[in-house]
Amino acid sequence: MNSASIIIGLAILAAVILPFVILSIRKRNKDYQNIQEFINTGLKYGLELSETEQWSDRLLGLDPVKRKILFRQFNNDQFTETIFDLNEAKSCSLLVTNLQTAGASQAPDKIEIVFKQKGNKAVENLQLYNSETDQVVYTQFEIGEKWTKLINDSLR
Questions:
Q1: What's the CA angle centered on 135, arms 102 and 105, to 5 degrees?
Q2: What is the pTM of this model?
Q3: Distance between CA 46 and CA 49 in Å, rounded?
């Protein structure tokens, strides 16, 4: 094999791999910027988010000192933000609702963190996944387990 063939092979390999590397770097930078902007939004609400999580079109952050959660969900170019006050909660649990199917396998319909409130207040849900709006279940179940543990640890 001569050196010209090696150079041409390396150039083709670089041309194939380089777009994937660039896209990966851009996505990582965009995710970092989203989280930084989310943390700054938390500061506007008086929250210092020490723990954050981002997946698909949602962001979640916890201020363990003030015991509050900031949740953001994007809808096209707009988003909604909800603050959950853990001072009003007794506990939380992960609720997975499955679709009713004829076969033996079940697909999740909704994955939610359910807050049990103190007193006779209504139960609040933080929806991590909804089959009507989300296309694929990625890591929402693992995220739900992690955050349920974090929240319950903050409630103690």
A1: 25
A2: 0.76
A3: 10
